[in-house]
Amino acid sequence: xxxxxxxxxxxxxxxxxxxxxxxxxxxxxxxxxxxxxxxxxxxxxxxxxxxxxxxxxxxxxxxxxxxxxxxxxxxxxxxxxxxxxxxxxxxxxxxxxxxxxxxxxxxxxxxxxxxxxxxxxxxxxxxxxxxxxxxxxxxxxxxxxxxxxxxxxxxxxxxxxxxxxxxxxxxxxxxxxxxxxxxxxxxxxxxxxxxxxxxxxxxxxxxxxxxxxxxxxxxxxxxxxxxxxxxxxxxxxxxxxxxxxxxxxxxxxxxxxxxxxxxxxxxxxxxxxxxxxxxxxxxxxxxxxxxxxxxxxxxxxxxxxxxxxxxxxxxxxxxxxxxxxxxxx
Length: 329
Ligand SMILES: [Zn+2]
Fold this sequence. Notes:
Arginase, Chain A, two-stranded antiparallel ribbon, 10 strands, globular
């Protein structure tokens, strides 16, 4: 039960941007009521970054910060401090994964900037370095492998998917709002991996308006067979909270019940969670509290029989059809 966090994340900040320091401040203020061990991360080294990203990407963002920062693309900003903060955020994911490797249980890196949109060569979608991919490659250096990633941010984690797209030892499952209706516009069912990694990327595009019941219905039918057959040594959660009904950036209608369910679902596994999105501060704080309490076993989902809408049942049928040769879904 370890939270990895540094108040230095606040140095990456732009007041009127939705991805600002108030996010982690709100989460930590709420989590402090729980009996949690909070540890400070160490910065990732350039070598850690280069296990995932290209030298040109590293040099570019470093230089960009040295020149004072600004916008890397339409929505991704950097300040003069952001390169150092991004190294610290990647280091937070590395530290969380080290804690779980050594002590078991779970650890959660409450870090900014987020990471799951960052590709090998490019910062995008508020993300500079891919924090979780960097932690995964660091664990591999230590001899650990075979990981399941579950990304429940409302946006498709195109960067993480892309980095492991041809890799059969990293299974990436993302549940997100249908990319026909939301950034980044990719993450369809037929994007299933490539080469040796074919079948090890799974996208669950959810219709706008889907609620907690829809999410729980479909994930419980998919995660169980995949976990049984893939047998991950560790689970990585890209924990975004922007599928919440009050979030300003998307149109999914999940509430705290889903975050309680997902925390409970993984509470007995070795879990490394990293913070991704979530932009309504109150919803973000409440959802994080439910998520962490359920990982601790202090909270359980309401055990109603869950029902899914017909469009969600249709998404499930299409996934089942496509993946039948890889998993007994
Ligand atoms: Zn997001």
